[in-house]
Amino acid sequence: MAGAPLLYETRANGRIVVLTLNRPEALNAMNTELLDMLNDAWARFRDDENAWAAILTGSGRAFCAGADLKEMAESDKTETPGKGLERLANRIPTALNEMLGLWKPTIAAVNGFALAGGFALAQQCDVRILAETAEVGIPEARWNLSAGWVHDLTRQIGLGHALELALWGDKRMTAQRAYEIGWANKVVPPERLMDEAMEWAERVVAMGPQAVRNLKEVLYRGFSMPPLEAKGFAVNLERNLLGMEDTREGPRSFAERRKPAFKNR
What is the CA 19 to chain-centroid distance, rounded? Predict the structure, then answer.
């Protein structure tokens, strides 16, 4: 693929957005331009009322190899060592949910290497589908670089597996191993990757969109709340379903034995 470092496409009459990291010659390493475009793309998806799910993937043989170390090295010639990485790291769209307010479902279709900041991009998606040939890792410690975004990883795979990835960063993890520790939701042959991701996206956009967003927000926010506080938060949030056309359409379609036609109204 040629052209812009990030491709933004819509499928399924606009219901599904596909974001493609598009610097294959650099293994989709994240430079300033790509990261600025990616942040804008996530905000565009969040604000598009017609878009209900998104897929993030990469072009070529990598998902994302992390920060563009060439750009970082150039900046370090004139700045304090590490300032270039800090500037790039601050642009990586982490905590998509709580910080960006993105409660629509997101899917990472990991087609190849997902390393360092590239791992972080996949980590921030709600589910991860990996090609059998994909490899993942957090090699920052190997180069004495920072990876503060790992604080969020323990709620996905637990402390022990997170420590394995972060402290022993000299070895990549296979797709199968990532599945075994619970980081990958599914592993498929490379040629099946995008079809599988689209199937997951099509399934979720057939659900009640506001109910999906409520459930996602409750699961993310409730993870760090005491049980009673989480229950109260969930009950209050669910009130936004009252009076919706979709809340009438769901039970009606069940009674009429047909698929619901949700409109997010």
Answer: 10
Q: Please indicate, yes or no, whether the overall pTM of this predicted structure exceeds 0.85.
A: yes
The domain made up of 6-205 is a member of CATH 3.40.720.10 = no
Fold (CATH) for 209-255: Lyase 2-enoyl-coa Hydratase; Chain  A, domain 2 (1.10.12)
pLDDT digit string, tens, across residues 66-105:
988 776 666 555 555 556 566 666 677 777 888 899 999 9
Question: What spatial distance separates the first Cα and last Cα of the chain, rounded to whole Å?
Answer: 38
Q: Could you tell me which of 33, 195, 21, 240 has the C-alpha nearest to residue 118?
A: 21
Find the helix or strand (DSSP H, E) in which 200 lies: helix 193-205
What does the domain layout of the chain look like in residue ranges? 6-205, 209-255
Whole-angstrom Cα distance, residue 5 to residue 22?
4
